[in-house]
From TrEMBL:
All copies of domain Major facilitator superfamily (MFS) profile, residue ranges: 77-530
Protein name, per record: Major facilitator superfamily (MFS) profile domain-containing protein
GO cellular component annotations of the record: membrane
Principal localisation: membrane
Assigned keywords, A-Z: Membrane, Sugar transport, Symport, Transmembrane, Transmembrane helix, Transport
Top-level taxonomy: Eukaryota, Viridiplantae, Streptophyta, Embryophyta, Tracheophyta
Residues passing through the membrane, by range: 70-90, 134-157, 164-183, 189-211, 223-241, 253-275, 337-361, 373-395, 438-464, 476-497, 503-526
Record localization: Membrane
InterPro entries given in the database record: MFS_dom, MFS_STP/MST-like_plant, MFS_sugar_transport-like, MFS_trans_sf, STP/PLT_plant, Sugar/inositol_transpt, Sugar_transporter_CS
């Protein structure tokens, strides 16, 4: 059965997206159209129910609804797995604070320290005072290591199961933390960071996929965002720890900050040992009986036959694919590949890590004293955690698209305000005395920007990639996402200080322009994925006005049945298996 109300523009004229999307005036109509209820989402307008003779009903609007509930077992497993996000978060939060501690700079980067002192004495250009490639290399070496590690992690995740990938991540991170805490020279420091990076590569590769596979479809968003929540908690803890250790008189506070990374590492390494593997992964590795038992346990019901046979079908299909890396390049995976690359790329181009890594440096630039700048970083950290809860409670109801579009708009508005406020005071010379009230105002808008990110691109940047790949390319696809994320994080970390020095306050407008691009991209190209079972996602792509053309009808299999779909919204039918 099919109900398909045509999309309409503001003027009420039916909108044919394939014909209209290149028209420039649409860009003007678009923001209003969202408000007035237009959606570039074919699933909402064409809610199709595909009935397979004698079989279940596949509703591409809402997805198949398998029996089962959210069991304590799943909830607990997901909480433990999500702690993998702590190591990533701790690391993001710790580097900015440590690199603004004078004893740390004096020991490892004396050149930067002297430049900073001089800038303070001369009241010279505030935009350029911390510009050192070696110092940024300390921050960003981790991301290069994570980039490479995620490719190895793909194999471990697929062959040995998700939990061993998490375990490997925790253990490597632990060694890195020890090396960093004991560092005597820059080499030890950077070597430690490389190990931390390998840990992050493994954890970020396996945790989001684990969560998305364990969760029942209708709660997948909520449970997956547990990962991002842990990332934000990690960042906040790191900020608080820096705040405390910066006060240590002996000048060794930075050692405590770096060594304490061992705590989150220990949590995920030990936690992973107790985690069950996902039914999807068990089936894929040939443990079919264990998988059945596990599925009963995680869904809290014996009525799992339907979901089980769909998982088996997905796994059998995935067995036909012997080279996930080569296969992911096939035309039929073009939509997933595009998002595996685009989502992390855009997530980083929101400019969030400028705030996360450099909040203390940035606030110092704004004229806060040492202590106040760490305090402001704590404030943004708190906003980051609390705003993440907004997405946890809304993501499976409102859907991914609405959060992306709202968050993008909010970030853009804040970037314009912050850029203008800083520009008005510092101008291009970078010399100014900023009154306290004024600086507080800037911090307020930075917080609103962080909140916008924390309920949109932050969590969705990990959730969406983890749920869109079919099983046969899931590990490979997730590696592409992780490595792209790390690559862009590396570039931004490395380029921020030189960019601040050259672009000055215009830097905020630079990232703002990217937010416009990514918001439009989501509006046109991202289908809604809420509530759709993970092994049925192909139906969503097939029904999309643009991506549908990349997927041949014979490539659409769900639960062993061939489903024939036409994305022009006219005919949808199913063939018997
Ligand atoms: C991003 C990080 C970012 C963090 C902030 C994550 O989703 O991948 O780069 O620092 O969110 O909360």
């Amino acid at each position: 059965s099919l109900t398909c109300a045509p999309l309409r523009t503001l003027l009420g004229e039916p909108l044919n997206l394939e014909r209209h999307w290149v028209r420039p005036e649409l860009l003007l109509v678009l923001p209003w159209s969202f408000v007035s209820g237009f959606r570039a989402d074919p699933l909402r307008c064409c809610s199709a129910a595909v009935t397979m003779a004698g079989g279940p009903v596949v509703n591409t609007g809402g997805g198949k609804d398998y029996p089962g509930k959210l069991t304590m077992f799943v909830l607990f497993a997901c909480i433990v797995a999500a702690t993998g996000g702590l190591i990533f978060g701790y690391d993001i939060g710790i580097s900015g604070g440590v690199t603004s501690m004078n004893p740390f700079l004096m020991k490892f980067f004396p050149g930067v320290y002297h430049k900073e002192q001089e800038a303070e004495r001369n009241q010279s250009n505030q935009y350029c005072k911390f510009d050192s490639q070696l110092l940024t290399m300390f921050t960003s070496s981790l991301y290069l290591a994570a980039l490479v590690a995620s490719f190895f992690a793909a194999t471990v995740t697929r062959v040995a199961g998700r939990k061993w990938s998490m375990f490997a991540g925790g253990v490597t991170f632990l060694v890195g933390a020890a090396l960093n805490g004991a560092a005597k020279n820059v080499l030890m420091l950077i070597l430690g960071r490389v190990l931390l990076g390998i840990g992050v590569g493994f954890a970020n590769q396996s945790v989001p996929v684990y969560l998305s596979e364990m969760a029942p479809a209708r709660l997948r968003g909520m449970l997956n965002i547990g990962f991002q929540l842990m990332v934000t908690i990690g960042i906040l803890c790191a900020n608080l720890i820096n705040y405390g250790t910066a006060k240590i008189k002996g000048g060794w506070g930075w050692r405590v900050s770096l060594a304490l990374a061992a705590v989150p590492a220990g949590i995920i390494a030990i936690g992973a040992l107790f985690l069950p593997d996902t039914p999807n992964s068990l089936i894929d590795r040939g443990y079919t009986e264990d998988a059945k038992k596990m599925l009963r346990r995680v869904r809290g019901t014996d009525d799992i036959e339907e979901e089980y046979s769909d998982l088996v079908a997905a796994s059998e299909e995935s067995k036909l694919v012997s080279h996930p890396w080569r296969n992911i390049l096939q035309r039929r995976y073009r939509p997933q590949l595009t998002f595996a690359i685009a989502i992390p790329f855009f997530q980083q181009l929101t400019g969030i890590n400028v705030i996360m890594f450099y909040a203390p440096v940035l606030f110092k630039t704004l004229g806060f004293a040492d202590d106040a700048s760490l305090m402001s970083a704590v404030i943004t950290g708190l906003v980051n955690v609390f705003a993440t809860f907004v997405s946890i409670v809304t993501v499976d109801r409102l859907g991914r698209r609405k959060l992306f579009l709202q968050g993008g708009t909010q970030m853009l508005a804040c970037q314009i305000v912050v850029g203008s406020l800083i520009g008005a005071k510092f101008g291009f010379t970078g010399v100014a005395d900023i009154p306290k009230g004024y600086a507080a105002f800037v911090v307020l808008f930075i917080c609103a920007y962080v909140a916008g990110f924390a309920w949109s691109w932050g969590p969705l940047g990990w959730l969406v990639p983890s749920e869109i790949f079919p099983l046969e390319i899931r590990s490979a696809g997730q590696s592409i996402t992780v490595s792209m994320n790390m690559l862009c994080t590396f570039i931004i970390a490395q380029a921020f200080l030189p960019m601040l020095c050259r672009f000055k306050f215009m830097l905020f407008f630079f990232f703002g322009a990217w937010v416009v691009v990514m918001t439009l991209f989501v509006a046109f190209f991202l289908p809604e994925t809420k509530n759709v079972p993970i092994e049925e996602m192909v139906l969503v792509w097939k029904a999309h006005w643009y991506w549908g053309r990349f997927i041949r009808d014979e490539d659409v299999h769900v639960g062993g049945a061939d489903v024939e779909m036409r994305s022009n919204g006219k005919v949808q039918a199913a063939k018997l298996p």
